[in-house]
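hey so u asked for the seq, here:
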Amino acid sequence: MNIDFAGRTAIVTGAGHGFGRAIGEAFAGAGAMVWACDLNADELAATRQACGARCEVRVVNVADRQAVAGFVAEAERAGSIDILVNNAGGVVGQVGRPLEEISPADWHAIFDVNATGAFYCAQAVAPAMKRQRRGRIINISSRAGLEISLTGIQAYAAAKAAQIGLTRQLAHELGPWGITVNNVAPGFVRSNPTTERQWQSYGEEGQRRLVESIALKRLGTPADIAHAVLFFASDDAGWITGQVLSVDGGK
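ran it, structure tokens below
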């Protein structure tokens, strides 16, 4: 396996903690220059420290098209844009509620970060990748985009499914330029405060049932997700595009 990214640049969104931080660390450890963004400056500072000198961090709202364009342009001035990991997402503080209680603002807030943000970031990096005639875009969705969301949040399941559809569509659009677009769909991982609260809410019996439903009988880790991302970004995945890889321990 050629997991060596020396001389390449990777943009990682939602890199303040959890999957994003693990992905940034993995790329930096494999020789890439990492440009990491998130909304939380303090968490980004911790990511910068974890990744070391091969990392630049910026506070960016991926739902803001102009902010995304400015961030990508700054990264491009420093070198090539070889890899984009659309990891920013989540439930933006929401919990499962009945359908009739969901406001338009609630719906759009989740779509903005999970689906629209991925679109804006892909749109921003596409010109540079086309000029280079190479590139890797990896979207981080969820098992919720393939079946149902354990959170019960309608917009989250819908937005993650939309992101998977975007992955397949962009794979065909960008393929002629040597750009691959793939998707990693994680299972349940205790990777951030939201998933930790969700885990605790299940209680001891619910936690046992969840683990027993997994073929490997254990929860995953952020590193498990990062390993899948690095594979899709590697030269060894050069003839793989438009695919969804479930990293969930077996369901």
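Residues 54 and 115 are 28 Å apart (CA to CA). DSSP finds eight helices and seven strands in the chain.
lmk if thats what u needed
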